[in-house]
Amino acid sequence: MSQERNLGLDVARAVAITLVLVSHIVPRFEGITPLQRTILDYYGAVGVELFFSLSGFLIGQQIIDFAAKPSPPALATFWFRRWMRTLPLYYFMLVAVSVSTSRWDVREFFFLQNFDASANRQPVLGVAWSLAMEEWFYLGFPVLVYVASVLFRRRSAAVVTAITAVAVIVACSAARLLAYGYAPSDPTFHIHPLMRLDCAAYGVLAACIVRSNAVSPAAIRQFIPAGMTAVAIVMIILTALAAAMTFPAFWPASGMVHWGRWYLPFHWTAINVVSAVFVLLIAHVRWDRNPSVIKQSVTTTSRLSYSIYLTHAYVVMLMFPALAAAVGSMAAAIIALACTFAASAVTYAAIERPFLQIRDAVLLRLRSARLTPRPAQGG
Predict the structure, then answer these.
(1) For a FRET experiment, which of 76, 168, 315, 325 has its CA 20 to 30 Å from that of 294?
(2) Band of pLDDT at residue 117, cut at 50, 70 and 90
(3) Model confidence at 3: pLDDT above 80
(4) Picking from 21-25, 188-192, 314-318, which range would have the lowest pLDDT averaged per residue?
């Protein structure tokens, strides 16, 4: 893959944030039925899962590099790269919301909020549940890769990383199956960091396919039409099931009271597989004929997506009710979206970008220090 910005991945990221935005705004419109709300909520969750696969695909490249030369300093460097990308804006938003609402929860400062199974606890930074899952993945997965690189030292870095990813996926899927009886009584089961430690592993597997040349780029491009069709069909089926399950009569009529024991634990596995396949395919699409204005819009949305994700819920929550009463739901949605993009541009310029520049400068200095030969010691 090219080191330059990949438009396909930008498109996937724009799709993911659009699904999240739509799921949080459109249900506020008047006249939305419970079934429509269910479908919108479902696709909001799909958008988050797509973010997981995107993250795994991109960060997976770094994990493979780490697996090639594993060491404690390399592990620390990996975590530094990751945390300088995610933590500054996260802590800014967490403190800002905590101050404005006078609600503080120390667990959210250490990404422990997803371990609480209480349905009555309202998180301070509600949208950060997904970030907590990712942080636990990127804290634990490289350590497992480190161990695997020792056990399989004769294997290539991509193979070692793939073995680790498959092991995590199998372990988490089995854990969800074994814990099925507990899941319905726990509203946070699907976001528990241990049960969902595989959240980004599917994207990492896709990265391993690319880096190992297990499938050539040409072969992947040939598979794009059939693969995208399969992705669409599977998502239609999953959406139909999610909608049907809201009707009590569907369970006995379909026999889901029996086969649901297998479907529900593996539901997230299915979405993650579909998301990873989508990411792998769209990363190989050629976009040469697209107008530059469209490319720029997609790239900008992609670049701001993290800021949009962390800020949009609070902009919408503060603005939408009053705006909808004054100008109607559609106009309120447009204004709220415009304000969300404006706020995201500000937080990106003031927080995200400066910390990314600091990170890159530190990494460049460390790289230069390693490459600079030390002067010979006098005898």
Answers:
(1) 315
(2) low
(3) no
(4) 188-192
Backbone CA torsion sign across 206, 58, 5, 293: positive
Question: Per residue in 361-370, is it b (16+ CB within 10 Å) or e — as a string?
Answer: eeeeeeeeee
What is the spatial distance between Cα 149 and Cα 103, in angstroms, rounded to a whole number? 44
Find, among 93, 139, 142, 85, the residue nearest to 359 by Cα: 85
- How does pLDDT run across 161-202, given as a tens digit for each residue? 999 999 999 999 988 888 776 555 455 677 888 889 999 999
* The amino acid at 83: W
Helix (H) and strand (E) counts for the chain? 13, 0
Are 70 and 146 in contact, with CB atoms under 8 Å apart? yes
Query: Do the Cβ atoms of 312 and 21 come closer than 8 Å?
Result: yes
- The pLDDT, as a whole number, for residue 181 is 62
% of the chain surpassing 70 pLDDT? 94
Chain mean position to CA 243: 23
Alpha carbon 307 to its chain's center? 13
Residue 264: partners with Cβ closer than 8 Å, 6 or more residues away? 180, 183
Nearest-angstrom CA–CA distance, 263 and 238: 10
Report the pLDDT averaged over residues 221-249.
95
| Whole-number Å distance between alpha carbons of 238 and 233 | 9
Distance (Å, rounded) from C-alpha 46 to C-alpha 271? Answer: 7
* Residue with tokens 């050539």, as numbered in its chain: 216
CA angle 130/245/19 to nearest 5° reads: 35
Helix, strand, coil abundance in the chain, percent, nearest 5: 80, 0, 20
Whole-model pTM: value is: 0.93
If you ran DSSP here, which 8-state letter would residue 294 be given?
A: H
DSSP letter at 148 equals: H
Compute the Cα dihedral for 85, 89, 92, 93 and give only its sign: negative
DSSP-based three-state secondary structure for 195:
coil
